[in-house]
Design brief:
Elements (H helix, E strand, L loop, with lengths): L18 H12 L4 H21 L5 H32 L6 H22 L5 H23 L12 H17 L15 H28 L4
Helix pairs in contact: 1-3, 2-3, 2-4, 3-4, 3-6, 4-5, 5-7, 6-7
């Protein structure tokens, strides 16, 4: 049974205030588009982005560049869906009992697909990709633990979801636009910009996890 939607833990996003997305939200809500469907579409965009990134190591030339651009577009569509699902739920003032599940699980699938895809991309490292994906899931898990413990708005960085996706989007666009001779290619394993991005995500994710755990500990140690 649907119920009135009263969000208590929303990631602060300046883009929610843009008129274009507010109007788009109004249109979607007026047409009774399900927030859960938007979440699923965001996951599909994330998986597609991961596949595009993976495929960049299987082609070269203009085909590789088109796939890198497609990866950037898929990442941004995933983030757009992540924003719109909550905005539509609020606009409709209705929430499904499964809304929280649809909000979280597709996000984790998208994170893993995109980050692992970046690990297999041209200039990436599968090992770094898997480690970065694990760290991304851990940061989300710690936030969920914090929320269960009563810590709201636990979106601390430096490598929260928007930061991870921004980092990978920038690399996609650099790979798309830079001449081949300007793109770094280190070691006999041909590590490049995607490897750098994944290393940043790993280090930043560890810092993020530590900061979130510290915030939870401080909350739990507060005098009753």
């Amino acid at each position: 049974m649907a119920q009135t939607y009263e969000p208590t833990d929303r990631r602060p996003l300046a883009s929610r205030e843009l008129k274009i997305w507010q109007r788009f939200t109004t249109v979607l809500a007026a047409r009774n588009v399900s927030p859960n469907l938007i979440s699923i579409l965001g996951m599909i965009a994330g998986i597609a982005a991961g596949i595009a990134l993976y495929a960049t190591s299987r082609v070269d030339g203009w085909q590789q560049r088109i796939l890198e651009l497609a990866g950037a577009a898929g990442i941004q569509l995933r983030l757009l869906a992540n924003m719109l699902d909550g905005m539509v739920a609020i606009a409709r003032q209705r929430a499904s009992p499964l809304g929280e599940l649809y909000n979280e699980l597709p996000d984790r699938v998208s994170d893993i697909a995109i980050i692992v895809g970046a690990g297999y991309a041209a200039g990436g490292s599968p090992t770094l990709g898997y480690w970065a994906a694990c760290i991304a899931v851990v940061t989300a898990y710690v936030r969920a633990v914090g929320k269960a413990a009563g810590v709201s708005s636990l979106f601390l960085g430096p490598m929260a979801k928007p930061h991870r996706m921004f980092t990978l989007t920038v690399v996609c666009l650099l790979m798309f636009g830079l001449p081949s001779r300007w793109q770094p290619d280190w070691t006999d394993r041909h590590l490049g910009l995607f490897s750098v991005a994944l290393a940043i995500i790993i280090v930043g994710g560890c810092i993020t996890t530590f900061r979130r755990v510290a915030a939870i500990v401080r909350h739990l140690q507060k005098p009753a």
